[in-house]
Amino acid sequence: MQVRPELSCMKCAAFCCRMAGYVSVSRADIRRLAKHLGLTVRAFEEKHIVEKTRKGEKRIKRGYDACQFLKGNRLCGVYEARPKDCRGYVCWDQDDDTVYRFAEFYQHSVARVRRDEAEERRKGER
To answer: Distance (Å, rounded) from C-alpha 3 to C-alpha 72?
Structure first.
């Protein structure tokens, strides 16, 4: 695995929550999330489990769908109780660099656009 420079999660479009694949939840994750949301385990599973594999693995996110807990401001709506999969995911520390490359491109593009806009404003003020 190649080491990549860290990116700023707060400057990202939450690609990890949109593109990073499935999010599996353990029994402990489910209990923690249910408690956080004020639900029983059963109610949480009925409302938030989107897939159960043949092996019995439960998921709250399918493949490349956006996570159901991603809020409009690109922040996690259950951050304090997020599953182990999410706690351990860091886009710059993965074998597959797809998410990292999207995030890197986005962050550098946005920074460049903001610099250009600021320069235009400065020119207009002269």
So the answer is: 31
* Chain centre to alpha carbon of residue 25: 15
Asked if residue 65 and residue 39 are part of one domain, the reply reads yes
- How much of the chain, in percent, has pLDDT values that exceed 90? 50
The beta strands (E) that lie in the chain are given as 23-25, 51-52, 58-61
What is the tens place of the pLDDT at every residue in 23-55? 999 999 999 999 999 999 999 999 999 999 999
Q: How far apart are alpha carbons 121 and 18 in whole angstroms?
A: 34
- Kindly state whether residues 8 and 27 are assigned to the same domain: no
Q: What is the mean pLDDT of the chain?
A: 90
28 shares its domain with 76 = yes
* Inter-CA distances, 41 with 32, 38, 58, Å: 9, 10, 13
What does pTM read for this prediction? 0.78
